Amino acid sequence: MNPDPFLNLDRVIHEKGRMAIMSLLAATPELSFTEMRNTLNMTDGNLSVHLRTLQEAGYVAVTKTFQERRPLTTCSLTPSGRAAFTNYIELLSQIVEQHRKK
Fold first, then answer.
1. CA distances in angstroms from 5 to 9, 36, 57, 75, listed in the order given
2. Structure letter (DSSP) for residue 51
3. Do 88 and 14 touch, CB atoms closer than 8 A?
4. Rounded to two decimals, what is the model's pTM?
5. Which of 16, 33, 54, 56 can bridge 60 by disulfide, Cβ–Cβ 3.0-4.6 Å?
6. Burial code of 44-66, b = ≥16 C-beta within 10 A, e = fewer?
7. Would you state the pLDDT for residue 1?
8. Structural domains of the chain, with CATH
9. Could you tell me which residues come within 8 angstroms of residue 48 by beta carbon, excluding any fewer than 6 positions away?
């Protein structure tokens, strides 16, 4: 078995909560903080910490605006975030294929 795919998994994405966020954002162009929180059943604090980590890695863009005089925070994948997630999924596929060959 080739260990390279395991060793090359992106540690930022690999954490369960961040992988869920990346998966959700990969499926849609943009989501509000509230939509993500409710869909993923996370607390505000937990989601905020994960988003900050992804934002610092350059994977997620966070935009703060106002809608009807209320604050609105939206998130989307950056081009580098989309590329990193695509690479992550490809590595997972390689791992799965290695186990299927057994």
1. 6, 29, 20, 29
2. H
3. yes
4. 0.91
5. 54
6. eeebeebbebbeebebbbeeeee
7. 67
8. 4-92 (1.10.10.10)
9. none
Nearest-angstrom CA–CA distance, 60 and 74: 10
Per-residue burial over 24-41, b if 16 or more Cβ lie within 10 Å, else e, is bbeeeeebebeebbeeee
User: What is the per-residue DSSP string for 54-86?
Assistant: HHHTTSEEEEEEEETTEEEEEEEE-HHHHHHHH
Q: Which residues contact 25 (CB under 8 A, 6 or more apart)?
A: 31, 36, 60, 75, 76, 77, 81
Determine the residue type at 19.
M
Q: How many CB atoms lie within 10 A of CB 97?
A: 10
Task: Using the structure block, give the residue that is written with the tokens 């997630």.
Answer: 85
Distance separating alpha carbons of residues 54 and 46, to the nearest angstrom: 13
Amino acid at 94: Q
